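queue> holo job accepted (flavin mononucleotide)
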Amino acid sequence: MRVVAFVGSPRKGGNSDQLTDAILAGAAEAGHETEKLYLCDYALTPIDAVYGAEENWTDPRQGPADELIERMVAADVVVLASPVYWFSVSGLMKLFIDRWALYQRDGRRLMDLMPGKRVAAALALADPEPGYLDMVLGPLQQAAKWLRMTWAGEVVATSVADPGDLAAQPGVLAAARELGRAL
Ligand SMILES: Cc1cc2nc3c(=O)[nH]c(=O)nc-3n(C[C@H](O)[C@H](O)[C@H](O)COP(=O)(O)O)c2cc1C
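queue> job finished
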């Protein structure tokens, strides 16, 4: 199987990136092909005004997102990795997800192309507060449901701020690797 991971932190080598590497290492151990893409390498922009029927939505700035979305379509499993920013995924990740609505190829939209594929998430955050992880994971799980994808699980690193912090949590890195193996 082919596993593609999208890193939604602008910090290469940061905590979300390290979690992603652990997941992909596990996936490689299980014999899967892996690919990692940094959203910050692409000129993602907010959705321009779109009107009318959803299937006619277009935006001239869709191109960079479509390059990424093509990788999703080509994969069997998608990993979404993000730091928590203000009780949500990063803006970068949200820009990417918003663009899913506008993707079209040969009259087929993402909801026609993703059913049956699997999706997992990796989150890094500094200050765990009871209850709010559901607020972050909920929209990702709902988006997966909308695309009729199967939720493959998540790994969450809490109390991590600096990139070195994650090394002190070998259990979390092991869980990420295990998630990758089980993808
Ligand atoms: C703009 C911004 C907003 C943040 N908001 C939160 C937050 O709401 N909750 C939290 O626990 N940590 C928050 N953090 C801390 C990051 O989630 C944390 O440092 C994380 O490990 C960064 O991941 P990265 O190394 O992959 O970029 C925020 C950080 C930034 C820069």
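queue> The chain has six helices and eight strands.
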